[in-house]
Amino acid sequence: MALPRRSPVSLALRPRSTAPKTSRRAFSASRTRCGYDDTVQNLRIGKHTRVIYQGFTGRVATGNAKDSLAYGTNIVGGVTPGKEGEHLGLPLLPNLRKAKEQLKPDATAVFVAAPQCGKAIEEAIEAEIGLIVSVAEHIPLHDMMRVFSILRTQSKSRLVGANAPGIISPIGSCRIGFQPLPTFAPGHIGIVAKSGTLSYETVASITRSGLGQSLCIGMGGDIIAGTNMVDALRVFESDPETAGIVLVGEVGGRAEEDAADWIVDYRKRVGEKAKPIAALRGGGQERTAKEKYAVLEAAGATMVQHPEDFGGVMKTLLSQSGRDVGKIVGNAQKQQQKRGYHTMRRRPVSTLRRQPSRIAADAIKQQHRSLLLGPDQAPAPLEPYLSQAGVSLSDTEAPKDAFHLGVTVDRTARSPCLAVSPSTHPSQLSQRLRHFPYDWREGPTDATIKSAIAHMQLDAAPPAARAQTTALLRALANMYTDKEAVTLSAAVSIDTTSGDLVLHQTTLHLQFDDAAFRSCNRQEDIHSLRRKNLEDPAELEAENHGIVFLTLPSPAASSSTAAQEPNIGTLVNGAGLAMNTLDALALQHSGTATNFLDTGGKATAATVKKSFELILQDPRVRVIFVNIFGGLTDGGMIAEGILLAFREVDMRGLPVVVRIRGTNEGVGQRIIAESGLGLEAFDGFAEAAGRVVELANR
């Protein structure tokens, strides 16, 4: 099944005119006077914000709404298709149109499963709801590129997500999402984060410092983010309640680099009045973690090594900037007392310094992996498109003067783009590669293709080669949407005898979005290639249960330096926290993990049990470390899953160390304490990690 963007692919190439088409109409009923960038102020939520739910009567939405109501969120009702009446004592309406008319919402929380989520977001845009927060995981990439293509045509609706923890204003008693409420405290620090779990650790540090939070935006870690770091920075700059700003990066994309560019401009515009900014680096494919660190630091952000450092660092920065820290803390405490707020009970934790770990970075990339076809598998799906473009496929090595071309995602533009370079040499490619974004619904225009070819420096190429390059770029753009790809690229050269364009098979890089099949049963032919290609059966078994699992290798026997055999099994929720856990074990406590395991945000007791089974398949494991800092992940459920594993799985007599923080942490901690299983439970991460390594080395 294909994405319902248009009719199934015709193998005839589809030239696209630069003239406007009906599908490019403004999606909102109101005339667009501004643009999507002008909707950032919709992020300033608070007591005034009228919130509805899409998928209101679902189990997760119901529980979330109860907690948000108790927190003070002004929820005015919700929508479930085909149902009308009351739910939780609030109006329940059968469609968004009626909800818009009767409830007059400012924001909607989209608690709809991935297969229907894109459509639900589009309905909210058409209803001109000011803020749309989407929390679902595994929404297909091309569904979100279509959504953002629509968002660009209007100036009424702002999207947070998808696959985002959401947005919360502790100072305004408003939560739209699933952040763990006990972690937050009203105050004056604005936070934007890609990683949910790392953001919760950050929030906890800010809360312990007494500074509290004004607004926290979880942008999510997906390739396409409706709201990015720059959008959040623009809001924090103008928000009178925000005295300082925190950025939490994560693996992948250019969000941190774009934020650095904004910070440079901001500091030039504002000078000494600039609000202090602290940041935690993230890794990435475009630049290494070290480079991300350097670019943010050079821009003027103060870098921290671990999220537990943010509270102390921000206090210092506020003081150095001439702001009255005592007054800021005092105002935050007044806000907390006004609403009867009590911070989480926790024992003091020691500062933990974090350095980049190659093995953790590799693991985090794996958790985002899609289907990547090798050069031997790529020709089958590619051949029909090459045939229509009139381009031949060669098994010869690409010459030194080859060109790079392809189609990928431009994360800044939040759209597909042509990616081209006049050189394929590794030392030049990253500097000379240029993106030419285009609208997902329309494909690249003639002008876009012409600009891309000019950048490839093909002006002097034979006419046949230039025409074939144009046809190939169009064909790849068609394949990109038809097959729901993430990246399609290759090296091409010009045959010196015939003057024709040649595509070199050994350079093919065809990467597809697995979520299209897993969530929506689309692209079955592509997905079947992954099943044949998957090397580790445990990874496929984990995937079938919604778990991201990767076995980490033992050190090479020929290594000249002594290296410890991995012996710690890890069970963590959230990719960012999982990477951080591996780093901390290795670099701060000299412990080595046997695996990377992310239970996923919607883990159940059965998922936790399966996670133990996967970890215990590895005979190297001598201790298991359960490290949970949950939002959507429920602490009580995690604890029940641990007990289930002890009842039904051969635990091999291994010790288990548990740290559960976040949503329902008290329930989870009580279940562990009363289990009678001899489990060791900790509040602080450093204490727990130290004990894990101690047990592993006994």
Automatic annotation (TrEMBL):
Residues 1-29 are annotated as: Disordered. One of its GO terms (biological process) is tricarboxylic acid cycle. GO terms for molecular function: succinate-CoA ligase (ADP-forming) activity; succinate-CoA ligase (GDP-forming) activity. InterPro entries: CoA-bd, NAD(P)-bd_dom_sf, SUCC_ACL_C, Succinyl-CoA_synth-like. Signal peptide: none annotated. It comes from the Eukaryota. SUPFAM superfamilies: NAD(P)-binding Rossmann-fold domains, Succinyl-CoA synthetase domains. Residues 45-139 form the CoA-binding domain. GO terms for cellular component: mitochondrion; succinate-CoA ligase complex (ADP-forming). Pfam families: CoA_binding, Ligase_CoA. PANTHER family: SUCCINYL-COA LIGASE SUBUNIT ALPHA, SYNTHETASE SUBUNIT ALPHA, PUTATIVE (AFU_ORTHOLOGUE AFUA_1G10830)-RELATED. This is CoA-binding domain-containing protein. It comes from Friedmanniomyces endolithicus.
